Amino acid sequence: MLLKYIVRKVVLKLLKDKRASPLIEEGMLIGLSVITLTILLSIITGILGGLKSAYVGAESSFNNIIEQIIGELNKLWEYVTSILSGG
Question: What does the chain look like in DSSP terms, one character per residue?
Answer without folding.
Answer: -HHHHHHHHHHHHHHH-TTTHHHHHHHHHHHHHHHHHHHHHHHHHHHHHHHHHHHHHHHHHHHHHHHHHHHHHHHHHHHHHHHHTT-
